Amino acid sequence: MQESYYSLKNQGKQPKVIGLLFYKTPWDEAPSNHFAVVLKEDAYDFVVDPTINQFYPLLPEEAIISTLDEWKALMINKEGCGKSSVVIMNIFDTPSLAKDVLAQPFDTKGRYFQSSLIKKYNVEFLKHGTNFENCLIADIDTITKKLKTLTNTLNKYSETGDPERFRAIKSLHTETKGDLDKLMALKSHFSIFSPDEIKVTHSIKSGFKKQILKYSVPTKDIKALRSTGDARGIISTFSGKSYIKIQKNAWVNVEQSEDSSFWITFQGQKKLLMRFDEMKEKWFFPALAAKA
Q1: Where exactly are the structural domains of the chain?
Q2: Is-contact 217 237, C-beta < 8 A?
Q3: Cα dihedral angle (56, 58, 62, 63), rounded to 10 degrees?
C-alpha cells in the first residue's frame, strides 16, 4: 500500500489512504484491518489495492485497480463478512496516519464506537446488520447507567478529602462521558430511536388498553426503533416488527395481514383484530366491543 501511495505521490498525484475495520459482529473484540490507496481522477475515485488477492485469489492481476464503488462491493462481500458484520471505512491523508489509527485494532477497546475513528461525519459504515442498531441502543442504556453511577460517586468525593481517588473517578467519568457522546452521535447519524424516547399512545382508549395488557411485552424486549411512530401510534423496529406503546412498560406487537387488516399478535399467534378510525384517530377492537 505504501509503495503505491508514494509512487503516485512522486508522479504529482494527490493520493489518500483508505482504512477499513472489519467486525464479525458489533461485539467483536478483535476487528481486522485493511488498507488501500484511493485517487480522484477526472471526477472518478479509483482504488489501488495491491493485496486484494488475499480476499479474492482468482481475480486477475489488473483487478488491483478498480473504481471505489466496485472495491467497496468486494470488501463487504468477502469471505467471513456475514450479515451481522460491521465494516467501517475512513480516509486518511497519509499511510502513517492510517496505521496510527488502525494498525492495532485491538487498541480501539473492542467496540466499534470506541475508536478515535468515530466522529460524526468522517466515517462511512459500508456494512452493518440489525444487530448493529440493537447493540447501539443496548450500549447507550448500559453506559448511561454507568455514567449516572460515576456521577453519584464523584459527588461523594472531594478533591481535598482524597485527591488521588477523586482524580481517578473523574478520569473514568470523563472517559465514559466521551463514550456516550460517540454513541449518541452514531444514534443521531443513523436516525435510531430507543424505546425510552417513545410516548405512550393516545390512539387506544384506556378501557381497551386494560383488556389488551395481557398481550403486551415489557420495554426490555423492544430493540432499536426506526421512528417515534406514525399517526396510529405504530412504531417499526429494525428487525422488522411493529409495536404500539400502550403503557410506560407495555408494548403490543401489531401485524398487518395480506388483506390489510391489523392484528395484535402475542407469542406468534394472532389474538385480536383491530381497526383504525381515521375520523376519531382511535383504534377499535370489534371482539372487545362486542363483549362490552
Answers
A1: 2-127, 132-189, 195-291
A2: no
A3: -30
For the chain, give the number of residues.
292
The residues, ordered by sequence, that sit 6+ positions from 22 with a Cβ below 8 Å of its Cβ are 31, 32, 33, 34, 80, 81, 85, 86, 87
* Tens digits of residue pLDDT in 80-108: 888 888 898 989 999 998 888 776 655 44
Q: What is the pTM of this model?
A: 0.72
Which grid cell is 30? 478483535
Q: Round to whole Å and give the CA distance between 180 and 144.
A: 7
CB atoms within 10 A of CB 214: 10
pLDDT digits (tens, 9 = 90+) for 256-286: 988 889 999 999 999 999 999 999 999 999 9
Q: Where are the alpha helices (DSSP H) in 11-162?
A: 68-76, 95-102, 130-156
Say if domain 2-127 classifies as CATH 3.10.20.580.
no
Listed in sequence order, the DSSP H helices in the chain are 2-10, 68-76, 95-102, 130-156, 163-189, 206-212, 286-291
- Give the cell for residue 188: 443521531
How are strands ordered across the β-sheet holding 86-92?
65-67, 44-48, 32-41, 16-23, 86-92, 124-127
Rounded to an integer, what distance in angstroms lies between the CA atom of residue 261 and that of residue 127? 35
